[in-house]
Amino acid sequence: MNGLAMFDPVLLSTFVEVARAGSFSEAGRRLGLSQSTVSEQVRRLERLAERRLFVRDTHRVALTADGDAMVRFARTILDVNEHARRYFAGSAKRQRLRLGASENFVRSRLPSVLHDFLSRTSDVDLELTVGLSDSLFDLLDAGELDMVLGKRRPGEARGQLIRRERMVWIGTHGTVVRPETPIPLVMYPPPSMSRAMAIEALEKAGLAWRIVCTCDGLMGLQAATLGGFGVMVQPQSMIPAGLIELPPSPMLPDLGDVEFVVASATRHPRGATAELTEVLLRH
């Protein structure tokens, strides 16, 4: 057999049907082919394999030892071929959605949003990037994301408004902020919006502060705050488990509001991007 020869799936399919039917004429009937066409296709496969695959006489068709081996190989090849066909046929119809989301949204509302989204469309492969809003907007501008669920300050124009929410100081039941010491802050690294809002509020109030813990993940910030390192800042509805909104205090000035928005890479989103945007605006 030529080392570069390939077994044609059409020939293999005909061969398997003959082996199953035990007859060239019956195989032809099942395949909608003439007996002569079935015979010719089997002969072509035998020439490719350089092996005799059937013992033929006037009464029956029986597999040779090589024919028995070929049945096993043929079924494997045909199964793989069918799986590949189905995979690529399905992939051609599926959409890819590159979604960026701020971590506090991911840990709070995103699961229910995605559940509602998938109930409306199931032909989407999701690529989820979690990060700080400003970093996500940079990726959106660079064409590396299709849409972003992030935050903006009131008055900024970027994205469609989902909702507005108050930012709050967060700590534990035992958190005490002492006026004689700088306020200990547990913060994301720049360009975190919550970090900037906290520092701006403290500077405006003339209060001393220092960063005692920096982490780019909310779980790390939560752990440090639970451990008593300091206080952190989050939207009011997204306070991590085990932490509380700290009561009003002259040492903890008002932080103002933040707006949650959805922004897409195009002015008029289509397909999965438009579908998820609609879900978010209704959620």
Automatic annotation (TrEMBL):
Gene Ontology molecular function terms on file: DNA binding; DNA-binding transcription factor activity
Domain of life assignment: Bacteria
Keyword match Transcription: yes
Alphabetical list of PROSITE patterns matching this protein: HTH_LYSR
Keywords: DNA-binding, Transcription, Transcription regulation
Residue ranges of domain HTH lysR-type in the record: 7-64
Coiled coil: none
Transcription regulation in keyword set: yes
Protein family: Belongs to the LysR transcriptional regulatory family.
Protein name: LysR family transcriptional regulator
Organism: Telmatospirillum siberiense
